[in-house]
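FAQ: What does the model actually see?

It sees only this:
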Amino acid sequence: MGALIRFMLLVVVSAAVSLALVLLITSRSLDLNEASINAAWLFMVAQKTPVAVLAQDIWGLAPPYWARQVCVLWQKAQPMQFWWLPIVIIALRYVLGGFARKKTRR
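And it is asked to produce this:
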């Protein structure tokens, strides 16, 4: 049972790390000033994207600026395209863990 809990924790942590990496890299590569965020937000509201609808459901018709910024960043990043990234992180953890165990046995 302990191994299953550790594996589930590894899956959650790797998903969080990969999402943070995707959002961080996207935010660094885009020029997100206030005018571009407002324009992208209005476009998202006009297109009724799921992210904009969710933000409006939570905060009403005029969500706070930081929420609009996160929504625009999420829409531009398209994190669901990187579904494979947590798998790569888990695989790297097992490969590097195997090398570390071999090195400590010597």
